[in-house]
Amino acid sequence: ASFLTTSNGEHVAHPRHGRKAAAKLEAAQQALSRFPRVRRDKRTANHQRAVDNVAKLHRKVRRQRLDHAHRVAVDLVREHDVIAHEDLKIRNMVKAPAPKADPDQPGSFLPNGAAAKAGLNHSISDAGWGVFLTILHAKAESAGREVIAVDPRNTSRTCPKCGHVAAENRPTQEKFHCVSCGHTAHADTVGAQNVLRAGLVHRDANPA
């Protein structure tokens, strides 16, 4: 739901630049699709304008993502000496689900959630987290700050109060409710608190 959430509960909104530009991109790509595929030197003026329009819209979205990533990274580096973040494996996160063969009908397949996963993949790509983390590390190194990548497994399922780990602790995407001690909070804030705690443990165990 958010681009990122900090351990003190601050939520940085997801800019969704790609989604906002989706209608214009779709229209531009449809206009381009009306032209036959030909070599660059064989394009008509109208064809070239259609190509340039699609490229221009893609460049604008990339610039917007980069600008947002730079601004958020600068704010974090200015305000904190140590920053821990989830060690996101973007390639794994955007993998398409494997097809499920229907054992009762050879040659047919069962629903595998591919449509929903495709929507999630678009959101992950639109967020640009991989680019953001690259920029964050570069700015932190330049400013003499420390950045620590933390294994994200169970970070939003672990209670920061009592340490109980359970999938039931996170009944919805946003809500955290510990089934052991009753602690409630925003699930992403809980995840960020656990990421910070793990990062500090790693830092103490591996002093510079």
Task: Summarize this structure briefly.
With 208 residues, this protein is α+β, with helices and mostly antiparallel strands. The chain is 50% helix and 13% strand.
Your description of this structure?
This protein has helices at 17-20, 22-33, 45-79, 90-93, 114-127, 129-143, 187-205, and strands at 2-5, 11-13, 82-86, 100-101, 109-110, 146-150, 175-177, 184-186. The chain is α+β, with helices and mostly antiparallel strands. The protein has a domain at 152-208. The strands form 4 sheets. It has a two-stranded antiparallel ribbon with strand order 1-2. Strands 3-6 form a two-stranded parallel ribbon. Strand 7 (175-177) and strand 8 form a beta hairpin. The two termini are 35 Å apart.
* Largest β-sheet summary: 2 strands, antiparallel
Number of strands: 8
Helical proportion, percent range:
40-55%
Low-confidence stretches: none
Task: State mean pLDDT (0 to 100 scale).
Answer: 88
Shape: extended
State the order of secondary-structure elements, H for helix, E for strand. Answer: EEHHHEHEEHHEEEH
Could you tell me the strand content as a percent range?
A: 5-15%
- Taking the alpha carbons of the first and last residues, their distance comes to 35 Å
Oligomer: single chain
- Provide a count of the helices: 7
CA radius of gyration:
22 Å
Strand order of the largest sheet: 1-2
Q: Decide which structural class fits the backbone.
A: alpha+beta
